[in-house]
Design goal:
The chain is an alpha+beta fold. 30% of the residues lie in helices and 27% in strands. It is built from 17 helices and 19 strands. Strands 4, 5, 6, 7, 8, 9 and 10 form a seven-stranded antiparallel sheet that branches. Helix 14 runs antiparallel to helix 15. The protein starts with a helix and ends with a helix. This is BTB/POZ domain-containing protein 9. InterPro entries: BACK, BTB/POZ_dom, BTB_POZ_domain_cont_9, FA58C, Galactose-bd-like_sf, SKP1/BTB/POZ_sf. Pfam families: BACK, BTB, F5_F8_type_C. It comes from Anopheles atroparvus (European mosquito).
Amino acid sequence: MSSQTMSGTHHSSSGSASCMTATQEIELTARFAEQMAQLCMSQMYSDVTFIVDDVRLPAHRVILAARSAYFNALLYGGMKESQQNEIKLDVPLVAFKALLRYIYSGCMSLAQMKEEHILDTLGLANQYGFDDLENSISHYLRQVLSLGNVCAILDAARLYGLDSLSTVCHLFVDRNATDILKHETFYNLSLDSLICLLQRDSFFATEVNIFQAVFDWCRANTESLQNVDINSVVGKVRFSLMTVDELLTVVRPSGILDPDRLLDAIAEKISCTQLPYRGALWPEENVATAKFNSHTIIGEMRSALLDGDTVSYDLEKGYTRHSIGESGESHGIVVELGTVFIINHIKMLLWDRDNRSYNYYIEVSVNQRNWVRVVDNTKYVCRSWQQLFFPAQAVRYIRLVGTYNTMNKVFHVVALEAMFTESTVPVVEGILVPADNVATVECGAFVKEGVSRTRNVLLNRVVQNYDWDSGYTCHQIGTGVILVQLGQPYWISSLRLLMWDRDNRSYSFYIEASTDLKHWEMIADKRRELLQSWQHFSFTPMVIVYIRIVGTANTANEMFHCVHFECPSQDPDFINGERSKVTEERPPGDDGARPADALPADQQHSANERTAAAEADAND
């Protein structure tokens, strides 16, 4: 009977289960956290007591050790505290209570805490290794920065090595420098943080206001400066940026600067052409816009340059221009930014509705008297979009000067952007060293010579859709070439091309590079080999504007077909393999150039013709 009853019950349970959804996971974490929180600072099961500011705080060793490597070492690591039932701590009471509640519950209500207690808790989180809590508090503080708390938060961030929080604080201070200098909390700033601010080019305020605030800070912190050379603080002020009147009427009466240093500052201001200017910093934001009160002050059709329109331009409108003199001289196009900004990147669109190219240079200045040339492409033809990088510096005026146009005597610029960016490209001797493929239409490159059904199909990055009739660029072997012009000069050390490979044909070819269509350097010589499909090449880095691909043989017919070209090479295997190899040194005296008479006899004549034609084009 008992057996039958159990069997019946079993079947009944199975039947019920078939009508119900089984619960495979049980999650009652909220209830668990609530019950654990009830143990916080409770005598129940307590086995250790912390004494903070004479207040006894009961706790539980196993919970603390499980939540923190610091407490695990303190309570179970063989230290003297592991044998004590009462442990005295020299920490802020309110912050330690908040930390205990976090340890037991995983929660902390920062909005209900005073800022000073939040900063104390941040310090304890850093001290006891609660990284998640430290990051969460840092994130919260970034959201609540204000004139009244930024100095204290900056000090805390620097003290605890919180770089991301320090960066946000610095940016806030930079953009509110004038108001920060006047705020009472400025005088509570630590010496190290003050010096760090004064050294920043982006701490943008008038230097006389900076001096006055530093002078007042020194008077408010006389005790902390007893063992400090005051010149280590005052010396960070850039006196040469003040007017002579400010030096004589504000600095001199303060007595903080000796007469010789005062005279040195005046002399530097008068004689130095490049003073240590400060400027506003707006990372990753174009400051050459009406939003920042920037405008074009010299040039014809000025309004077009900064209007942001990079689409609606033609022969009649949509660009700013200036005439190019007989020897290339001109006042150029000048843009005045709304204030002095720190920039390291200029992006410029040259008029490109046809294949014309330009030579130009760019200068920057703070006062329109002393100019610094940051870009010099007077020796290289450029077209379409120009991506330009240079060392960060303070700039108020940008001067664009065209020196050559392959079509006429006018320099045309459609758009200009200026900014500070962290995403810089390496620059060697003023020329970019790209990692990404720059042989694209988007980068201003185009196919100058070569036959194809679709213009610039060689550079469209499509490597699948090609057949007998389309998807490639070609030339007749023995008479033509494929010639690619890049948008601007680049340091290039590798390239890759895809030759037409829908059957088993093979090709022979060579590749040359130039900056002026006159002087060519061989970078790949495959005239004595038969190759197919994808080909990769690396070579000694060189400045390149033009790439000439010359087919010399095809096992199927008299045409050379190329589907895709890129430089530098973007093939991952090639990047990880070939690029890591050390390029073999050339023999002494060998500059890599290959004269026409070094070619096979059947190609000497056509090579000479191409060279003569290129020189004629360049002269025209």
